[in-house]
Design goal:
- The protein folds into 2 domains: 3-112 and 214-231, no CATH class; 134-207, no CATH class.
- Helices cover 69% and strands 3% of the residues.
- The chain is built from 10 helices and 2 strands, in the order H-H-H-H-H-E-H-H-H-H-E-H.
- It has helices spanning 3-27, 32-51, 59-78, 84-94, 107-127, 142-146, 157-169, 175-188, 190-207, 218-231, and strands at 130-132, 209-211.
- A two-stranded antiparallel sheet has the order 1-2.
- The longest helix has 25 residues, at 3-27.
- It is globular.
Length: 234
């Protein structure tokens, strides 16, 4: 990371990450006012950053990253995984990041999944305030369906599989075609299909845990963007 990026964006990202995490823990919500402040600061900082001619070439990949982040968060809301506040916060935080390549677009989501899944399992083990209610649907096999084609995308498969897993649960009317397509995918590429099936099994176990309490998402979203900003991605 360049010195200008560290000087301009790290303090703001850390401040907003800390604030959002506190508010999410304390009040179980991420206020719209905070999201507006993040976007306002982002406009100012990015105006300064892109005013340097040497950084102008990064503008295209920056806007592409923000658009992808917005679409990802919107999809997670549509499948009932995120609340509206999570969507707005994730998208706003993405405007404080400048990835160096498209391969890093899914890094924050991947980090979020790793952290939140680990925290979910840990809290379940420590507090025991949960119920385990597994409910399988053939739509959950949607990651297996697209597994033979993942290599050509050039991105991490895990977050893609995660989103497709929850999307598949909404496609009850297509469960028979999805199951048939999953079988075809297994015949096409057994190794990749098994990898996707392993990811699906992890998601199935985690999604079967029902908490009686509240596990805030802001700390995990914040940590994921801080990782990408400071260390440059996975």
């Amino acid at each position: 990371m360049q010195g200008a990026e560290l000087f301009l964006f790290v303090p703001s990202l850390l401040f907003f990450a800390t604030t959002a995490s506190y508010l999410d823990f304390r009040y179980r919500k991420i206020p719209n006012a905070l999201v507006v402040r993040i976007l306002a600061v982002s406009v100012i900082l990015n105006s300064v950053f892109f005013s340097d001619f040497t950084n102008s070439g990064k503008m295209g990949i920056f806007f592409a990253f923000v658009i992808v982040s917005a679409l990802i968060s919107l999809l997670l809301w549509l499948v009932d995984f995120w609340k509206p506040g999570d969507v707005k916060f994730y998208t706003a935080m993405s405007t404080l990041i400048h990835p160096t390549s498209s391969s890093q677009f899914l890094t924050p989501l991947l980090c979020f999944l790793i952290l939140s899944i680990a925290a979910t399992v840990l809290e379940a083990l420590v507090t025991r305030k949960f119920e385990f209610r597994p409910r399988f649907s053939p739509g959950m096999l949607l990651p297996v369906v697209i597994s033979p084609f993942m290599a050509s995308l050039g991105v991490s498969a895990f977050p893609i599989f995660f989103m497709l897993f929850f999307l598949g649960q909404k496609l009850e009317k297509l469960k028979v075609p999805i199951a048939a397509a999953a079988l075809v995918a297994f015949l096409m590429s057994p190794a990749r299909a098994l990898q996707a099936l392993a990811s699906t099994f992890i998601f199935f176990l985690v999604s079967s845990i029902r908490f009686k309490g509240h596990l805030p998402s802001a700390p995990f979203i914040s940590a994921s963007f801080i990782y990408l900003l400071v260390w440059g991605g996975i």
